[in-house]
Design brief:
The chain is α+β, with helices and mostly antiparallel strands. It is 32% helix and 20% strand.
């Protein structure tokens, strides 16, 4: 497909899920898009990596059926969610539920809210008092509209509604750490309630479903997004880090580190608008030279971060778990770091015998040597799954993202898409949202940035006149 003859020339700096979403929406709206990514591959913190000859992910991910914008964009770029994602009912299942162990909570495929009622009645491993406490919090949250006007920590919220220690241990704390990647003692209850609204409190049962990728994260969206942009006349450049943005009259120019020669004239151009979809710290550095965005840059630079570690353990290809994934009883004091284990062979036949164990809020685990952490996790699997052979994998590999997400604390101020600089907008999972740093947050942010620039066209006319009519005065973009 040839380049569009109309529309703005837009630079999308950053090829993570937010940048890819922005590029797709802008290309769909007829703008001339250049997507530039510093790494060799697209995807940001949800990308494919090569490990022992296998294409894996830099971290195991779970999506929700409520991720409407993510699912819409997958279909738009030609990815069928029904084949790319394994759909499971909302669940929290431990290997051996019962006294002294975990629980088995899984929703039947009934209409909401009966699916949750059925799950609660059928749950093994919880006492009657635990189930009543869960029902009490759920009812109160629905009555509040899943909103909390005065934010507090998740632990404070759970104490306020009389949640039992066992329920916290088996359900609320693991959900909080998995969703917000922040320990409940300092995680935002307001954001946690938004996650519960779309999982345990979903009005449609399908919205509460858990979706497990059956291909690598690069193939799930970023690669298809890049192909979509190129089919619509855009350009995709990797290995080129944007290290400065400068105003050139009423346009923007960028300077690049990396293999800029590969980009040729693609990045040596004047752009009508820029979507800044780089990590928050890099965005802060690019914004800090401008007095108009000095405060925004300081806000981005002040964000704190949480780590996520994923441990891959390869066993004999004949090895398989009974379920695609289990929750685990972590106990760092005893060297049990894993919180969830996934049987990759049930998601992709090429990964037969491969288990992926996730450690969220992994600051302490990240201090260990990789071999020591992998050995501890293998021993934990052998103990919890009662399978001694799991203590001796053929090989293991730990992948740690030390800045996987921002620390989602109470009352955290998150910036919107707009900035005080004309024609420049932000995108990223750190931008304003009632969700934590999830793939859906990143995608929504990218769509919001594209909308601010001109998809489907409301602001496009303003920016077009700004870029091509010398008599216009600069104006800030609005989201």
């Amino acid at each position: 497909m040839s380049a569009p003859s109309a529309g703005l020339r837009v630079l999308v700096a950053g090829g993570g899920w937010a940048g890819c979403a922005a590029a797709v929406e802008l290309a769909r709206a007829g703008h001339r898009v250049t997507l530039a990514e510093a790494a060799r591959s697209l995807g940001g913190r949800a990308r494919a990596v090569e490990v022992h000859g296998k294409t894996l992910d830099n971290g195991q991910h779970i999506l929700l059926g409520a991720y409407g914008e993510t699912l819409r964009l997958l279909r738009l770029v030609g990815v069928d969610p029904d084949t790319a994602l394994l759909r499971l009912p909302v669940q929290m299942r431990y290997p051996f539920p019962g006294v002294g162990g975990g629980m088995d909570f899984v929703a039947p495929r009934w209409p909401a809210p009966f699916h949750l009622i059925g799950a609660l009645l059928r749950t093994k491993g919880l006492e009657r008092a635990d189930k009543l406490a869960l029902a009490r919090l759920h009812s109160a949250a629905r009555w509040m509209g899943w909103q909390l006007y005065n934010d507090c920590t998740v632990d404070e919220l759970l104490e306020r509604f009389g949640q039992s220690a066992r329920l916290n241990r088996l359900l609320w704390h693991p959900l909080c750490i998995a969703a917000l990647n922040t320990p409940p003692a300092r995680a935002s209850a307001r954001v946690f309630l938004a996650v519960l609204r779309d999982s345990l409190g979903a009005r449609r049962r399908a919205a509460s479903d858990m979706l497990l990728p059956q291909c690598d994260m690069g193939a799930l969206f970023p690669q298809a997004a890049a192909a979509f942009v190129e089919r619509h006349g855009g350009a995709v450049v990797t290995g080129a880090r944007i290290d400065a943005l400068t105003r050139d009259g009423e346009h923007w120019r960028c300077s690049v580190q990396g293999d800029a020669a590969d980009a040729g004239a693609v990045l040596d151009a004047r752009f009508d608008a820029v979507v800044l979809a780089t990590p928050a710290a890099q965005s802060a550095a690019l914004l800090s030279p401008y007095p108009e965005t000095a405060q925004l840059a300081a806000q981005l630079a002040a964000l704190n971060y949480e780590a996520i570690a994923t441990c891959y353990l390869q066993y004999d290809p004949a090895l398989a778990l009974e379920l695609p994934f289990y929750a685990l009883l972590d106990n760092p004091a005893l060297g049990r770091w894993g919180q969830f284990v996934f049987d990759r062979g049930q998601l992709d036949p090429a990964h037969a015998g491969l288990l992926a164990v996730v450690v969220s809020a992994a600051g302490d685990a990240a201090q260990l040597q990789q071999d020591a952490l992998a050995a501890a996790i293998a021993a934990q699997l052998a103990h919890e799954l009662r399978r001694p052979e799991l203590a001796a994998p053929h090989w293991s590999r730990v992948i740690t993202e030390k800045r996987a997400t921002f620390s989602c604390t109470p009352g955290l101020a998150r910036p919107g898409n707009d900035t005080a600089l004309p024609g420049l907008v932000l995108a990223g999972d750190f931008t304003a949202s009632d969700y934590p740093a999830t793939l859906e947050t990143a995608v929504r942010s990218g769509i919001g940035a594209a909308t601010a620039i001109g998809a489907p066209g409301t602001l496009s006319r303003e920016l077009r006149s700004l870029s091509h009519d010398p008599g216009d005065q600069p104006r800030a973009c609005v989201s």
